[in-house]
Amino acid sequence: MNAVTVTALGAALGAQVDCGDLRRLDDKAFGQVYRALLDHLVIRIRGQQLSDPDLIAFGKRLGTLDFAPLAKTGKERARTHPEIVIVSNVMENGEAIGVLRDAEVVWHSDNSYRDRPLSYSALYSLEIPPKGGNTGFANMYLALETLDPALRAKIEGRTLKHDMTYNSAGDLREGFQPVNDVRDAPGPSHPIIRTHAETGCNALYLGRRPNAYINGYSVEESEALLEALWSHATQEHFTWHHVWQPGDLLIWDNRCVMHHRDPFDGGYRRVMHRIQCAGDVPALKPEGKIGHPRAKVAA
Ligand code: OGA
Ligand code: MN
Known about the structure:
Elements: E1 5-8, E2 15-18, H1 27-40, E3 42-45, H2 52-62, E4 65-66, E5 85-88, E6 91-92, E7 95-96, E8 99-100, E9 105-108, E10 118-127, E11 135-139, H3 140-145, H4 149-155, E12 159-161, E13 189-191, E14 193-195, E15 202-204, E16 213-214, H5 219-233, E17 239-242, E18 249-253, E19 257-261, E20 271-278, H6 293-298
């Protein structure tokens, strides 16, 4: 029997979940962890000792694991486990062991540039630099709830085109060419407001800012609307920032959260292993509600 304690962390989102050893979580305790994820949008579980197979086994309880094929930039070492994406600045024998380097990682939602973006991502920390590399999260239910009604009217029912050319550290993905016109950028369109299939609540779904385009507007109009949406959605009071320790597992819900990483000093090692779950095709449903309860904690 695992006792599970859930403690809200940030004002807008995030909770610490204490549940003992994740490798030995019974089904009831797992259900409580999963509930905490839907209620708090991102959860932190500390003090774990997970091998890659342990991480994969835990990930399979969250959903169907996805291999995030476009995480590849072609410059990093081949994966040992196809399910695990290494996020790291470490070089071995002249080759990067993972992706995202030591760069700032711009605000984004994982794999929004695919027809079926990810639901959950879970990032497990093995080595952490003494400072920098903190990861911030922003509540997109709350961003929608507090959006200026006039701005909201301009995006209601619209779709946003999500560019797949660059990763969130600004690196060109394997096999892609630079983008000259946002309207021609390769990638799917998704509703700008989407209904979360499990909570039934609507959230703003922005993906990432570079090369985004709101379909049906001129590029100038789209740029102006995107600037307004992004400056609203990334306000500090919608966010919570995590300072990593080795052994932390962070799990977030890409359907209602964006995340950002601060850059760090590349003279230090940062090594994280990530697994991710396949999600559904984003949709705005007529029955979608405004007002996820976690956002009310912040009000
Ligand atoms: C990711 C990501 C941020 C970080 O793994 O999807 O954005 O803190 N990582 O490394
Ligand atoms: Mn990410």
